[in-house]
Amino acid sequence: xxxxxASGKGGTGKTTVAANxxxxxxxxxxxxxxxxEEPNLHLFLHPEIQSRExxxxxxxxxxxxxxxxxKKCMDICRFNAIAVTANTVVTFPELCHSCGGCTVICPxxxxxxxxxxxxxxxxxxxxxxxxxxxxxxxxxxxxxxxPVIRQVKSHRAPDQGITLIDAPPGTSCPVxxxxxxxxFVVLVTEPTPFGxxxxxxxxxxxRLMNIPHGLIINxxxxxxxxxxxxxxxxxxxxxxEIPYDKAIAQAYSKGDLIIAQQEDYKEKFQxxxxxxxLLADSEKCAP
Length: 287
Hints:
Layout: E1 2-6, H1 14-24, E2 29-33, H2 42-45, E3 48-62, H3 72-76, E4 82-84, E5 89-91, H4 101-105, E6 111-125, E7 131-138, H5 146-153, E8 162-166, H6 173-179, E9 184-189, H7 193-208, E10 213-220, H8 226-233, E11 238-243, H9 246-253, H10 258-261, H11 264-279
Helix pairs in contact: 1-11, 5-6
């Protein structure tokens, strides 16, 4: 079972949900922080990092002695990563999506590939029973997020285990890369106009991907009832509510788990997992 924890906007509490759900499961679980531009799951789970690997992408390198400046490499590139003038070629590695099209189409074999480091993937274990951890860290200045996310996801649990993915906020390519091939998406929102606006975008995205999904309303009690009305209108199951609570906010600010401060929440997160299993493909749920 692979479960993504996502949200339309940042700061809604998806990392809080991911960390507490992972720590509540009495089963082997792998937790992957795919918010590679700003990973913070480690602040709550305190993993012992045991290995680090670079995320490498190939980018074009031009042999000007061979190049005839025919512009075929520039024309095939959808991302404007190559510019050809009358007597030189300029490449923009930060725009390259590493499709390799330029190397294939060049009639003079003037385009080869060199390696570009996009970021790092770290893996390790959490000082809790049967929990593995992974996170990606995008290098400063890099913009190619999906390859880093895909490499983080390559460390997911074996078929019979549970994998929790802390997805990036938003609805763009990084979120889609994180949610792709997952069995269920938990959307975390807050009952405010901003939360509702971004929730609508997130729901549209998940439904286009045809992934079963449900809703957690965090900071319940603030804002208004519009999120609840939207959930009812769209037949969106509300799996759990986390009230606006000063003690929960204090636990978050200290990097503590809610379940460590309020014991009844462990059972609530276990109930959340059972609800997910009922809505997802139950055959993939760990017993």
